[in-house]
Amino acid sequence: MPDAQHLLLFVLAGLLLNLTPGPDVLYIVSHAIRQGARAGVVAALGVSAGCFVHIAAAAVGVSALLATSAAAFAVLKWAGAGYLLYVGMKLLAGKSAPKRWGFAGAPPPAYGLGSAPPPAYEEAPSQLWSVFRGGFLTNALNPKVAIFFLAFVPQFIAPQAQHKALAFLALGIVFNLNTVVMNSGWALAAAWIARTDAAQRSLHWLDRVAGLMFMGFGLKLALAENPTH
């Protein structure tokens, strides 16, 4: 691990980098606006879970393979681009639905004793899992994240460190914890803004804008070259 001064610089750099909007932030914000703070935070946790894949891969050298192998980079790149395009088209083709209880924090509709719970309540766990899975795939299928960790984290590992892989994992975990905090902040802020009447009336257009942005990120990723070449 770096000393206290370098660790502080690492944390500050990570916070600044997490403020930069990208497909991960767009995924979190879009779900927070449409489905409430809980869905946004779950999306943030899914993104962070995908981040752990890149951290572990970089620590064991898989990211080095992506950096040097054009074929490996291309496979992951096209998979990630295809998924982002799919999410974008799904938003463009779908209909904006009102918020459901379990996501937005609104009280459930009343139902009699012994009767079945309302459908929105029953569907909430499976929908949250779908949100988590989508956030995971949005991050895990982006090879540029793997290259980023391979380029960014080693700058804060001392050349004389005896266990560089463990130091990489430790710094990666610190970075990811920062990511959880920042992305949850994006989710809570977006959910708060979505409570306004103007935002509720604009959900249809917000879905369309988010869909176009996802497709733009997908096309950008599809056209991206390996940064190390």
UniProtKB/TrEMBL annotation:
Protein location: Cell membrane
UniProt keyword list: Cell membrane, Membrane, Transmembrane, Transmembrane helix
Annotated signal peptide: none
Transmembrane segments: 6-29, 41-66, 72-93, 141-159, 165-193
Membrane topology recorded in Swiss-Prot or TrEMBL: Multi-pass membrane protein
Keyword Nucleotidyltransferase applies: no
Domain of life: Bacteria
Main location per the UniProt record: membrane
Listed Pfam families: LysE
UniProt xrefs under PANTHER family: ARGININE EXPORTER PROTEIN ARGO, ARGININE EXPORTER PROTEIN ARGO-RELATED
Protein's name according to its UniProt entry: LysE family translocator
Species per Swiss-Prot/TrEMBL record: Ramlibacter alkalitolerans
